[in-house]
Design goal:
With about 375 residues, the protein is an alpha+beta fold. It is about 20% helix and about 30% strand. The two termini are about 20 Å apart.
Length: about 375
């Protein structure tokens, strides 16, 4: 059987030097950080990806270990395996660069929880990071790469440096990339449960799998939070090995973040025409690469607790864009009506109370499941 490298985990990253932050950026010095992930697919071997894409200084890695997770910061010590980079156990990632570890000859299964430990001997500066990691990470002083449990560890609500895992899988394996904002990334779903909408949809699939390239706070047309979606296409979709389909949810932050950032002053977001033009460009570029592109309506957010986010202008644009998406003139291969899947029947501009993550802007685990259950699996012929 012919095999090739296929993405089995992804975490899209944010520039810590942005002017506006929803998530507090940070760095590390003389510490071990331990982060966990859950694989979306199976393979005969794996390799890991690390990024210093937004670092201001070279990133020294004094060691990196892979292990099977037990719980919390714990690992199975019998599974603890040093990673190598071009044959060595230490490496330096240049400014703006990314690296891939040497292959680890370890059969892995979909749903398996692994833990990655990095020893960072020097001052990293503000780290290239992801907003919503699979689960809470941990940091401790010194080199504790092989520690079975990290005692008195600092908890890390954001992810750092670790951006992906590839597995050696059959060459005909095809996957989908979930691409967009917090509704893709899984904000306000329970950490460590893999209950984002793409993850819950992934569990319905019988062939192929889905990797997540969402960034909470991301926008289609404007940088911050993260590079805007149109600028992320090459790196976060086209460069993902095995991709054949793309699932998209974007727009909430284009409509709401300008008002949130400017509050209490008014601010203007894109018009419906500008946003539709952006979505059309997005679909056209993905189609040009031969991918199947599945769009979605913009989710409801009336009454969100985030001041300045919910405006009448934004709501009007949302309705106009959604009407276009549900019509016949859009450029997507299909459109998932995410808004209808979670809307309150009594007030469709709001999230249904039992699906509300608590802030009126995000869905909880049940809301993410409602979206996943609304997807026609015939759209994902992986």
């Amino acid at each position: 059987m012919t095999t090739t490298w296929i993405a089995a985990h992804r975490a899209a990253v944010i520039n810590p030097h942005e002017a506006f932050h929803l998530f507090e950026p940070r760095g590390f010095s003389g510490q071990t950080i331990r982060q966990s992930l859950r694989l979306a697919g199976s393979g005969q071997a794996l390799r890991l990806r690390f990024s210093n894409r937004y670092g201001k200084e070279p990133l020294d890695i004094g060691g990196a270990h892979l292990a099977v997770r037990t719980q919390g910061s714990g690992i199975d010590p019998t599974s603890d395996t040093p990673l190598r980079f071009s044959g060595t156990e230490t490496t330096t990632i240049p400014v703006g660069e990314e690296i891939t570890s040497d292959p680890v000859e370890l059969p892995v299964s979909a749903g398996e929880e692994l833990t990655v430990s990095l020893y960072l001997p020097g001052d990293t500066g503000l780290s290239t990071y992801s907003a919503v990691p699979y689960d809470t990470g941990h940091a401790v002083p010194g080199n504790q790469l092989s520690a079975e449990l990290l005692h008195h560890a600092e908890e890390l609500p954001t992810g750092h440096f670790l951006t992906g895992v590839d597995v050696l899988a059959p060459a005909d394996t095809r996957i989908a990339v979930a691409f967009g904002d917090s509704w893709i990334e899984g904000a306000f779903t329970t950490p460590g449960t893999d209950n984002s909408f793409p993850a819950q949809l992934n569990r319905r699939l019988t062939r192929g799998w889905i990797v997540n390239q969402g960034i909470s706070g991301n926008r289609l047309l404007t940088d911050e939070i993260g590079d805007h979606l149109l600028s992320r296409i090459d790196h976060d979709v086209l460069a993902v090995p095995g991709v054949s389909h793309v699932l998209i949810h974007i727009g909430l932050n284009d409509l709401g973040l300008p008002g949130l950032i400017a509050h209490p002053q008014p601010a203007e977001g894109p018009t419906a025409a500008q946003f539709i033009a952006g979505l059309t460009t997005l679909a056209d570029r993905l189609h040009a690469a031969g991918l199947t592109v599945i769009g979605s309506t913009i989710g409801p957010y009336r009454g969100t607790v985030h001041e300045g986010y919910d405006t009448e202008t934004g709501q009007t644009v949302r309705h106009q864009v959604n009407a276009w998406l549900l019509g016949t003139d859009h450029p997507f291969d299909a459109v998932i009506d995410i808004a209808a899947a979670v809307a309150d029947p009594a007030e469709p501009d709001r999230i249904r109370p039992d699906l509300n993550g608590g802030d009126g802007l995000h869905v909880n685990d049940a809301g993410a499941k409602a979206i996943a259950d609304a997807v026609d699996l015939s759209l994902l012929k992986l």
